[in-house]
């Protein structure tokens, strides 16, 4: 009986060692460091009420205007106006968020219930050429903090963008939230 007990104990010990040695190796010491930096502002600019919740009309576009995936329509400009910026804030950029298009996660998907197919909404800097991918900061704009003219217009462009060679006709509305990032 003693021999069988010792034998079982030996087998169990070997299995435990085999299990532990097959487990992935994890380091107990840190392999690197990430430093998070930033600051908390006492106050920020005021977003003009016409910019806070706006509708940008991209127009009615013929589906045949899109010949290939990646084709875009004419640019539609829109502005975000910042006012009453404190002296401590020298520049700002914008980050656009929303539901990403399944075929191109850099552009906005159409809202649920929209009937157009193979298209999304792309956002660009004011030049209409430099894309602003979703969840990415736009170019920084130096702010005018002059008390007399303390009104800063940040201009952007929106365009429909095909995500497939053939675009299906229908309603094509999309929604984006935006966040002002101060530097």
Molecular structure report:
By secondary structure, the chain is α+β, with helices and mostly antiparallel strands. It has helices at residues 2-22, 49-52; strands at 46-47, 76-83, 91-97, 119-125, 141-142, 151-162, 177-182. The strands form two sheets. It has a four-stranded antiparallel beta sheet with strand order 1-2-6-4. A three-stranded antiparallel beta sheet has the order 5-3-7, with no helix packed on it. The longest helix has 21 residues, at 2-22. It is globular. It starts with a helix and ends with a strand.
Looking at this protein, list some descriptive labels:
single chain; 183 residues; alpha+beta; 4-stranded antiparallel beta sheet; 3-stranded antiparallel beta sheet; 2 helices; disordered N terminus
Q: What is the number of beta strands?
A: 7
Task: Sketch the topology as an H/E string, one letter per element.
Answer: HEHEEEEEE
Low-confidence stretches: 2-11
Largest sheet: 4 strands, antiparallel
The percent range for strand residues is 15-25%
User: What is the radius of gyration?
Assistant: 27 Å
Strand line-up across the major sheet: 1-2-6-4
Overall shape: it is globular
The average pLDDT value, as a whole number, equals 86
Give the termini separation: 77 Å
Proportion of helical residues: 10-25%
The secondary structure category is alpha+beta
Tally of alpha and pi helices: 2
């Amino acid at each position: 009986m003693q021999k069988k007990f010792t034998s079982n104990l030996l087998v169990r010990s070997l299995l435990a060692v085999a299990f532990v040695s097959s487990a992935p190796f994890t380091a107990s010491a840190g392999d690197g460091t990430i430093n998070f930096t930033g600051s908390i502002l006492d106050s920020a600019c005021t977003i003009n009420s016409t910019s806070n919740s706006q509708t940008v009309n991209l127009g009615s576009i013929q589906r045949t205007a899109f010949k290939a995936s990646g084709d875009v329509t004419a640019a539609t400009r829109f502005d975000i106006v910042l006012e009453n910026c404190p002296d401590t804030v020298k520049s700002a950029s914008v980050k656009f968020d929303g539901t990403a298009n399944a075929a191109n996660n850099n552009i906005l998907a159409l809202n649920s219930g929209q009937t157009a197919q193979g298209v999304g909404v792309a956002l660009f800097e004011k030049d209409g050429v430099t894309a602003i991918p979703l969840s990415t900061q736009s170019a920084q704009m130096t702010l005018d903090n002059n008390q007399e003219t303390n009104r800063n217009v940040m201009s952007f462009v929106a365009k429909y963008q095909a995500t497939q060679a053939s675009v299906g006709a229908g309603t094509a509305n999309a929604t984006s939230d935006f966040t002002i990032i101060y530097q």
